[in-house]
Amino acid sequence: MRSSQPLEVLRNVLDCPLFAETLSCRCRSVQLHLAQSSIMPQIIWHLSVFSASHKFHFLFSPIFELPVNTPSFWGQNFQGPYTTEAAVLASSNLHDKSLYISCGLDAKILVSGGKIVQAQRRLKRALPLTSIVSAIRNGNDEPERTVGAYAADQSLITSKNGRKSNDPAKEIVASSLYLSEDHLQNAQVLGNQGNLLDKLKAVHMHALAMEQWNASRLKLCHRRHATSAANLIHYLALRSLDVDQLKDDLSSVGLLNLETINPYVIASLSAGIQMLENLKSSSLDGDERVDGIANDKSSKNYSNSKFTIGMMTNRANSNRDILIGPPQDERTHIMVTVGEEAIANETFINDIIKTGATIIRINCAHGDPSVWSEIIRRAKVNSQMLEKSCRILMDLAGPKLRTGRMKAGPCVMKISPKKSAIGNVINSAQVWLAPEGAGPPPAHVSPDVVLYVDSKEFLTKLEVGDTVRFSDARGKQRSLMISKKFPVFTGVGFMADCTKTAYVQTGTELYIKGNKKKSSIGFVVDVPPTESFIRLKVGDLLVITRDSSNEQQQSTSSMVGTPRITCSSGYLFDSVKPGEPIAFDDGKIWGVIKGTSISEIVVSITYAGPRGTKLGPEKSINIPESKIQYEGLTSKDIMDLDFVATNADIVGISFVRDAHDIVVLRQELEKRKLKHLGIVLKIETKDGVKNLPIMLLEAMKLPNPLGVMIARGDLAVECGWEMMADIQEQILSICNAAHVPVIWATQVLESLVKTGVPTRAEITDVACGRRASCIMLNKGKHILEAIATLDTILKNSRSTKVKPEVRHLVLSNHLF
C-alpha cells in the first residue's frame, strides 16, 4: 500500500464542506486522536492548515485501536485499502457528552431504544451507540445537519436548531459513528495492537500534549510552582487514559509501576521508554553494547531535564519544608488543635511541644483574638525555651453551618463517687481545693472535681485529716475529708475525698467543723455553667430557627414542647427542601427535612443513639444533597485574616469548593501583600474533591507555600462513609503529583485522646496517615498520651534496622 493513500483519505475528509460546517456549528475546540505512523508530520501539517483556515484549536494525542475498518464520510465512499494512519477523531463538550468524528461505516442506521442496527452487515445483535454525527433526511429528501449524543439506554437526536427527537423510526445516514460494546467514553483506547514500547510512547506523548494544551494556564503559575503544576497536568493526562492493561503488562516484566510515578510522571515514563528501547536494541543487535547498555544512536532521547526524578523529589521536599518545616529524623509532623484549655493550664503548651507536637492549630470558629494571642505567645516562648520548632496554623471558620448558642445552664458541679452495682461506694470522688486564681492542679494529680475558694485564710488553716462541711445545692449536708496537701504557685492546695454525691454551686459555704463551733468560713467561686444540650431520639421532631430572638418568639407557638436549636446562617434556610437529609455533629445524628419556612425548618430524626444523642451548641450541620451556594470567604474570615497574617505561619481555608473561592482568596492575599503566608486548602465537600486539581492550579498562581488538609469529619458526612477510603486515596494521589504536602486530619487516635485507650483500627489508620506530611490530633483529656503514642509509631516507621527478635529469621533464610 502506498503511504500517500492515507493522506488522500484525510484530505478528502477535511475538504468535505459538511465536515467543516458541522464543526463550526457545534465545536469551539477540537481534540484529535491520531494513530502512530511514519507519516505523522504530514498528517499534522494537513490538520494545521485546516485549523488555520477554519479557526479551530487542535490537541493531538494518540490512539491505537479504531472501531471501524471501512472508510466512509457523509455518504462519500473512498476506494482502496483503509489504514489507521488516516483516522481522525474530533471531540468536544456537547450536551455533556463527547463528539467523535471519524471514518465511519457505509451503512444506514436505524435508531431504536438506544440501540443501533446496521442494515448492510446484518449484525446478529444490536450494539450500544456511544455517539454519532449524522444527517437526517428532511421532507425534501435533503440531508440536514444534526449532531446527536446517545447513551446505551436512550435515543436522542439534537438538530441544528436545538430541537430534540425521539422518533425511533427515523432513518439516519451515518456520517461518523463510534460503536462500543463496553461503553467506553473516550477515544484513547489502549488496545491489544502495538507492543509495550509503542503504548508507553503513546502515553508519554499524550502527557506532553496535555501540557502543551494547558500551556497558557501553566504560564500563569508562579515560578515556585511551575514544574509541580506541569507534573500535575501530566498526572491528570495519565489518569484520563484506560491504562489498566498497560499497568499489568509493565508490572509483569518488572519494569515500571504506574501507581507510584505520580510525583515524577514524565521522568518515569521516559525512563521506562529508554529501558525498553535498550532492551529492543539489545535483542536486535547484541554486539552493540556499552557497559551493558544498548548503544542505539537512532533511538530518541525521551529524557527531559526539567522533570527528572531527583528534581521532582527535591521540589516536593522543598514545598513541605517551606510550609510546615523540615521534619525531625524524616518523620511526619504532628499537629495538635488547642483552645482555651491551653490558657487555663500554664504548662500545657510546654508539655505538648516537649512530647512531640511541631505545629499548633487554632480554630478561628472558637475563641477570640485575646485567647488566640495568648496561645500564640505561649507557643513561641516555649518553642524558644525548648529549642524546638513549632509553627502556628489558624483555620478560618469559613461558611460552615453550625448550631447556635444555647442558654447557659446553672453554675453547678456534680461530685460523684464511684459505686458498685448495688450502690456501695467503691472509690470516693477526688476533689481538688485551691485558692482562687491558682491555676490547674499539678500534672501528677488527677482529681475528679476542681473547686476554687476565695478565702486564703480558710485554706491556710486546713490540715491533713480535717473535715470540711457544706450544704449542697439541694440542701443535703455533705463533707470533704482532707487527704493530701501540696504547695502551689499562690499558696497551698489540698486533695480531699468525698464519699457521697453532692452538687456544689458558686457561693457554696465551706467551713471546718470544730469541737464547739464553725471556724474559718470560705466560699466556692468560679463554678462553670453546666453544658447546655438537647437529647434527640429516633422519631423526635426538631425545629431549627434563625438566630434571632424576635423570630424565635414568633415561632414558639407553632410546635410547643418540640426541641429547638438555632442557626444563624441564612444559607441553610434558603437551600433545603422537604425530603432532603440533614446531619448534625459530624454525622452522630441524622434526620430528614419535613417542612420549611422563612424562619423555621422542621426535621424528623432518623438516626441517633439507642438512648438518644446529645446535641449541643456550636456543632456542625451538614446538608449533603441540598444545592447550597456558599461564599468563598465570609466577612468574619476577612476580618480574622488580618490577625492571622500578623500572628500565624499558615492559614487554613475552610470549605473551598471551586476555583472561584481561590480567586477570592488570592485577591485578599495580594491586597495585603502576603507573599509568605502558608495556605492550606481544607477539602470538606464533594465539590472540593471534584475540583481539587483546578483549585491547586489556581492557587499555584500565588507565590505562597501551599498545602491541603483532608478534613475527614465533614468530608465523610458529605460524601458518604463508604466512599471515605477511596476519596482520601484520591486526594493523596493528586497532591502527590502536585508536590503539595498533605495534612491527615479528624478523629486520629480519637479513642486514645478521649479515653486513654486506642482502638486497633486507629493504630492502622495512623499507619496509613504516615504517607501524609502531617497528622493532626484534636484536643482531649489524654492528648499528651496520644502525642507520645503517635510520635512512637512515627519513629518506628522510619527505623530500618532489623529487630533483634526477627534477626534469627533473616539469618535462617540464608540456608535456603
From TrEMBL:
Keywords of the record: ATP-binding, Glycolysis, Kinase, Magnesium, Metal-binding, Nucleotide-binding, Pyruvate, Transferase
Domain Pyruvate kinase barrel: 331-418, 531-777
EC number: 2.7.1.40
One function term, GO molecular function aspect: kinase activity
Keyword Chloroplast carried by entry: no
Any single Pfam family the record assigns to this protein: PK
Keyword Electron transport among UniProt keywords: no
Stored InterPro entries: Pyr_Knase, Pyrv/PenolPyrv_kinase-like_dom, Pyrv_kinase-like_dom_sf, Pyrv_Knase-like_insert_dom_sf, Pyrv_Knase_brl
Top EC class, one word: transferase
Pathway assigned to this chain's UniProt record: Carbohydrate degradation; glycolysis; pyruvate from D-glyceraldehyde 3-phosphate: step 5/5
Cofactor dependence: K(+)
Similarity comment: Belongs to the pyruvate kinase family.
Name listed for the protein in its UniProt record: pyruvate kinase
Species the sequence originates in: Cynara cardunculus var. scolymus
